[in-house]
Write a structure and sequence with these properties.
alpha/beta; six-stranded mixed beta sheet; disordered N terminus; binds fe (ii) ion
Length: about 325
């Protein structure tokens, strides 16, 4: 015993360390390791759950309102101060339930616009709840003139092989019952605040229903363009531009890409984007010969997933 009667390491009678020296540190490290392991497991599970919640629940309904200037996209100039609402790819289905679409439409209608352009894929397979869907889409058409083209999911040559309608007639009839003007390989001269616009709606590319040559004049060999007024095209699939190369148009509004739905952070890679030209997955971009294309990421989705790629409500202003 030391002078102050406090035990020391040298008090061990057999020269071995006291129990506290040989076991406590081991026990302490073991507990730390176990706690660390358990904590890591819980953190991993929590992170996975949070990521899953974000991808499947939060982000698919976390609509982003975007605004872009399109006045410069028209060769002949266009009246300033107009705003167009561009929505696409509602994909009404079990994957995109009606309350999600109602939320998007309600958000869109909180902001003024002069016309609405809807660029296809109104459904994924079939029209499930037509009365309620009619009320939702009717909210848009009762507020402003509304025009639509159809997408690959809306019936026809592609949809029939993917659980959808054999023709686009059912969706067309449904949209017309919503007071929406449907243009499939058709054109119409519309007036917005006295501004004439030559509006063309094309049939879908994947449905092999596109006939641009029947509704679009070709650019003259001299380079002269037949139209003097602004030419706006509605085409679900932006790859349609390849088939429209020799025709006369200013701005094409498209959807279909969904922005890729999953965008790898930092790299921007979009592994699932369903288009031939992956260089333009979303947004407004100039194409050959002063033509422009706007692709909206869409309201709905496929397979109930979005990551780093929010659904979009687009406003385009002149
Ligand atoms: Fe789509």
């Amino acid at each position: 015993m030391s002078a102050d009667n406090q035990p020391t390491l040298s008090d061990a009678s057999d020269g071995t360390p006291p129990a506290s020296q040989s076991t406590l540190p081991k026990t302490g490290n073991g507990l730390s390791r176990r706690r660390l392991l358990i904590g890591s497991c819980f953190a991993g599970l929590a992170s996975s759950a949070a990521l899953g919640f974000n991808i499947r629940i939060f982000e698919p309904s976390n609509f982003e309102i975007t605004r872009k200037e399109i006045g410069h996209c028209f060769r002949s100039g266009i009246r300033r101060g107009m705003t167009f609402l561009h929505l696409s790819d509602f994909h009404c289905s079990r994957e995109v339930p009606m309350p999600m679409i109602e939320k998007a439409v309600a958000m869109a209608l909180e902001h003024p616009a002069d016309a609405a352009f809807l660029t296809g894929d109104f459904i994924t397979w079939k029209i499930d709840d037509p009365e309620r869907y009619r009320q939702v889409l009717g909210m848009i058409s009762s507020r402003m003139p509304t025009y639509a083209c159809l997408g690959n999911h809306d019936g026809g040559g592609w949809a029939i092989n993917h659980g959808g309608y054999s023709t686009n007639q059912a969706v067309r009839d449904f949209l017309e019952s919503c007071e929406i003007n449907v243009l499939v390989n058709e054109w119409r001269e519309i007036f917005i605040h006295d501004q004439p616009i030559h509006l063309i709606g094309l049939g879908d590319l994947w449905a092999k229903d596109h006939r641009p040559e029947t509704v679009m004049p070709r650019i003259h060999e001299s380079g002269e363009t037949p139209f003097e007024k602004p030419v706006l095209v509605l085409s679900h699939n932006p790859d349609m531009k390849i088939a429209m190369h020799e025709f006369d148009w200013d701005l094409m509004l498209s959807g279909h890409t969904h922005g890729g739905q999953l965008v790898v952070p930092f790299t921007g890679h979009r592994p699932f984007i369903p288009v031939y030209d992956t260089s333009h997955p979303e947004g407004l971009k100039k194409w050959h010969n002063r033509r422009w294309i706007h692709i909206t990421r869409g309201v709905g989705n496929r397979h109930s997933v979005r990551f780093n790629c929010r659904p979009e409500i687009s406003f385009l202003s002149t």
